[in-house]
Amino acid sequence: MADLKTTLGSLTLKNPVVTGAGPLAGTADHIRQCVDAGFGAVCTKTTSFSPYLQRYPRPLYRLKDYVLNPDSPRFFPDHYMWFHRDHNSIFPPDRFVNIIKEVSGYCKENGTVLIGNFAGRGLEEWVQTVSQYAEAGCDAMELNFCCPFPPKGLESDPANAFIGMSFTADPERGAEVISTLKEKVSIPLFPKISPASSNFAAVAMMFEEAGADGLSLFANEQLLRIDIETGKPVNYGPCAGTSPIFKAHTMKWVSQVAQRTDLPILGGRGASAWSDVIEFLMAGADGVEMCTPVMLRGFGYVEEVLRNVNEFLDRKRIASLEEIKGSALKHIYSNLEMIEKVKALHAEIDMDGCIGCHRCSEVCVYSAVKVLPKKAAIMKEKCAGCSLCSQVCPVSVIKMHERDSDQEHFQALAWEHKELMPELFDCSQE
Ligand SMILES: Cc1cc2nc3c(=O)[nH]c(=O)nc-3n(C[C@H](O)[C@H](O)[C@H](O)COP(=O)(O)O)c2cc1C
Ligand code: SF4
Ligand code: SF4
User: Fold this and answer.
1) pLDDT value at residue 196
2) CB 302 within 8 A of CB 37
3) One domain, residues 244 and 168
4) What is the mean pLDDT of residues 336-355?
């Protein structure tokens, strides 16, 4: 069995799978269930002092693209879009602290790291509540710089308007919260940032400079879909949402933040399969948050994820997760490195195995596939080497080969308009 421990700055987690803040960890009983399920750390449901965010919640959950399978009730589709209107805890922070007190001992006994989550407005609120959470037994704190987004119509109240994602959108204000808290509390601080910003690496650098101990990316984003049968927006208009399809976006930013800061990273938003845990770690994360995948499948899913992660590590003879953390970063190429190091390709079909389905010609936008009776052939001189045909061929008889020269590759790209690029073709005749 591999060692699944992961360090997150000064914290050590027994494994990298972390409860994403939300209803999975909104009561003492639920937090204990997270611990029993095997999570390496638990992030608790966000609290705030904003009355309308406590009293507003209509936790309506709506799934779109979630395919049901009546023949297999426990079938879980890989893809779904999740929309919700689940704002802050009904419990104000100074009362939620009692829940933290109640469960912190249980978390410690079971080696589960307890991370609080709070959305403050002014500095005074931030200091008061984060101090209380620390005293109550939290090992670390997620600073909610991500949600809520004030529900439309309610943001007009200036006392409540600057909260949650405002601290990512205006990172100077976020940095001020971090540096103020660093002087008052000693537990590690993880700003949890919103995906509704632009340059997260720059935001991360600013927060690192201010003293952040790590970063959680990302929370939900406001999303919109329309039900075309009713003509109405899903869940009454733009609202918080997530989906496994966001994995690639989150992972890109995890890698960029990992390359540009020394901050430990809790990656999440879109990680749903056990293999996503490995991917996130290879991209530079130190832990991986999961919320909706566990809400949909139940707490037993955590054990399944951990078992599969373990089996993968054993199969690859990897003794410890630390070996794979950030391991993909050195293979990330810049555009210049792509030109210098990656050879151009061309496709070739093994005609004996070809079943003549012509999928290759359907996808070839470079018109490089010749359709033959019950077969197909590739015109090497026109093949741009994109490799799409080799990935859709149902019998995998298309192989990609490196080209001898870039010149041939550029000729293939210009083939349809040789007259526009005579220098490419003149050269080859020399
Ligand atoms: C119903 C629901 C409630 C959530 N509540 C909170 C919250 O209170 N605080 C928070 O920081 N994130 C909250 N989140 C965001 C999750 O912690 C997580 O960042 C997000 O769902 C993306 O991860 P996922 O794709 O694994 O679900 C909530 C998510 C859902 C689905
Ligand atoms: S590799 Fe791309 S360009 Fe070449 S034949 Fe296949 S689909 Fe066409
Ligand atoms: S997709 Fe594969 S099997 Fe189908 S015609 Fe092309 S090479 Fe042949």
Assistant:
1) 81
2) yes
3) yes
4) 95
Tell whether ligand 3 has an atom less than 6 A from the beta carbon of residue 202.
no
| DSSP code of residue 268 | E
Which of the ligands is closest to the CA of residue 374?
A: 3
Q: What percent of the chain has pLDDT over 90?
A: 86
1 part of a folded domain: no
pLDDT recorded at residue 150: 65
For the CA of 216, the nearest atom of ligand 1: 19
For residue 412, the ligand 2 atom closest to its alpha carbon is: 3
What ligand 1 atom has the least distance to the C-alpha of 89? 8
For the chain, the domain total comes to 2
Q: What is the structure's pLDDT at 430?
A: 45
Q: Which residue's CA lies nearest to atom 1 of ligand 1?
A: 86
Where helices occur in 41-170 by DSSP H, the ranges are 51-55, 93-109, 123-136, 158-161, 166-169
Q: Tell whether ligand 1 has an atom less than 6 A from the beta carbon of residue 360.
A: no
* Helices H / strands E in the chain, number of each: 17, 20
Give the range of the structural domain holding residue 116, as residue numbers without chain letter.
6-331
Of ligand 1's listed atoms, the one at least distance from the Cα of 295 is: 31
State whether the beta carbon of 383 lies less than 6 angstroms from ligand 2. Answer: yes
pLDDT at residue 244 is higher than 50? yes
Nearest CA to ligand 2 atom 7: 364
Distance CA(266)–CA(325), nearest Å, equals 12
100: domain CATH number is: 3.20.20.70
Mark whether 363 and 342 lie in a shared domain: yes
**Ligand 3: centre distance to CA 354 (Å):** 5
pLDDT at 154: 64
Q: What is the pLDDT of residue 255?
A: 98
Among the listed residues 250, 166, 178, the one whose alpha carbon sits nearest the alpha carbon of residue 208: 178
